[in-house]
Amino acid sequence: MPIINIVASGSFNQNIDLENLSHTSGLEIIYNPKKYHGGYLIIEKRKVTLYKSGKYILTGLKQIEDVDRVYTLISRTLFPFMDISRFSPPKIQNIVMVENLGKKVNLISLPQEHPELKIQYEPEQFPGLVCRRNEGTILLFSTGKMVLTGLKNIEDGEMLKEFISGII
Question: 7-93 belongs to which CATH class?
Answer without folding.
Answer: alpha beta
